[in-house]
Specification:
Alpha-Beta Plaits, five-stranded antiparallel beta sheet, 5 strands, 41% helix
Length: 112
């Protein structure tokens, strides 16, 4: 059985108010992801001065339903005011380790 993996890296713009809004939105979206149908794993990690999320899903459709709903959808409204980042989604045969997913993100992620 395969999985769908999403890795996002976000670098907030400077400013305490922006950072607070970023963390609030991130926390709420992470809570939503952990409860979302089809979610197998939701992880938050800083790396290289960038805040990352890695989620693993039973399928891409489950991930897309999550992205378009609830706290995640609200977090995406005006996110460019808070900073910028890169994202990567990919199918895998099994859940990858953080190290494997992060290395792939470094090579293949696209700007959002």
């Amino acid at each position: 059985m395969g999985v769908y993996v999403s890795v996002t890296g976000f670098r907030p713009h400077p400013g305490l108010a922006r950072l607070a809004r970023f963390w609030w939105r991130t926390w709420r979206a992470a809570q939503q992801a952990r409860r979302a149908p089809g979610n197998l794993r939701a992880e938050l990690r800083p790396a290289g001065g960038i805040y990352h999320t890695m989620t693993v899903w039973t399928d891409e459709a489950s991930m897309r339903a999550y992205v378009r709903s609830g706290a995640h959808r609200r977090a995406m409204i005006g996110f460019r005011d808070l900073g910028g980042g890169r994202t990567l989604g990919f199918a895998a045969d099994a859940e990858p380790s953080w190290e494997v997913a992060y290395a792939r993100w470094q090579r293949e992620a696209r700007e959002v």
